[in-house]
Amino acid sequence: AAKKAGRNNVAAFIPAMLEELNKQVQLEAQLRDAMRTGLIEPYYQPFMDLGTRKLAGFEALARWKTAEGRFIPPCDFIPVAEDAGRIVELTEQLFRRACKDAMSWPSDTILSFNVSPTQLSDRLLGLRLLKIMGEVGLPVQRLEIEITESALIQDAAVAKEVLEDLTKAGIRIALDDFGTGYSSLSQLSNYQFQKIKIDRSFIQTFETSEKQDKVVRAMVALGHGLGVQVTAEGIEEPSQLQYLQELCCDLGQGYLLGRPQPNDEAIHFISSSIDVAV
Ligand code: C2E
Ligand code: MG
Ligand code: MG
Ligand code: MG
Question: Ligand 1 atom 25: the closest Cα is on which residue?
Fold first, then answer.
């Protein structure tokens, strides 16, 4: 009887798996269309120098706007592109577009670009990015690559090589979502970073938790001790901004300072923030 029940469980599982597989196949087909018709584009979220309150750069965040006007978030389609073997092509498409857009900003404005853990196991990543920058004409000093800690665990040897390629070429590396991975501290001394980005989960809780407050202070001190810049992400409240300024956190990002926006709005943002500063 036990054997029979077991078999029935498997049988019951198959339709659900097929449905899942079907969904995946459909999504991959939609992704292919979206890439072909240019429906996936980078949006740009500003990050500000908290000392001078001036714009320091924009982070490119991929957006897929469907023909019906619905947005599919990157956490839903980046993994699909990876599974479908389309991530290299998608990244090149997004990166080329982002470099071109960055050419329309003031020449001291940084472009920050995210790469996922899977992409860091691509030995040619550095070369691919450098080739595109060369073609578009964006100087390497204007680029920063954001990686997460999990990227360094997946295929550590290759990741290290890729990061060294980028660093040698003069591209800065930022450690994203800092504090949420397993091995932050050992990674900090194993690799060369120029920036850590404190994950927004810390920024959004330190006001109500004394412990979180101590953790944020320690992270800022750690970054400064290592001689790297510290960015706080997810700033939504003026009180959070003020606190981070008091802590001498270098840079800030979040809805309070600016949302991810298409390039024409980013250009408008640049000119209006210059107006405010003058
Ligand atoms: P991330 O790099 O940590 O990006 C920050 C995420 O937080 C973005 O979500 C952004 O829209 C959101 N955010 C920014 N400020 C605030 C705030 O004040 N409050 C709240 N609640 N959220 C805020 P998004 O755009 O959905 O991106 C999610 C993740 O997807 C990114 O996390 C990044 O890891 C990844 N991603 C985005 N674009 C790309 C891409 O082109 N390539 C790759 N490989 N990954 C990407
Ligand atoms: Mg990021
Ligand atoms: Mg982040
Ligand atoms: Mg994050």
Answer: 61
DSSP 3-state of 251: strand
**Structure-derived torsion over alpha carbons of residues 190, 191, 196, 198, reported in degrees to the nearest 10:** -50
Residue to probe by mutation, ligand 1, list 93, 112, 114, most atoms within 8 Å of CB? 114
Which residues have C-beta within 8 Å of that of residue 75, sequence separation ≥ 6?
none
Nearest to 130 by CA among 145, 117, 116: 145
Centroid of ligand 3 to alpha carbon of 176 (angstroms):
5
Torsion angle of C-alpha atoms 106, 48, 192, 114, degrees rounded to 10: -80
Ligand 1 pocket, residue 260 CB under 6 Å: yes
| Digit-coded pLDDT (tens) for 130-150 | 999 999 999 999 999 999 888
Q: Give the ipTM of the model, two decimals please.
A: 0.98
Q: What is the pTM of this model?
A: 0.93
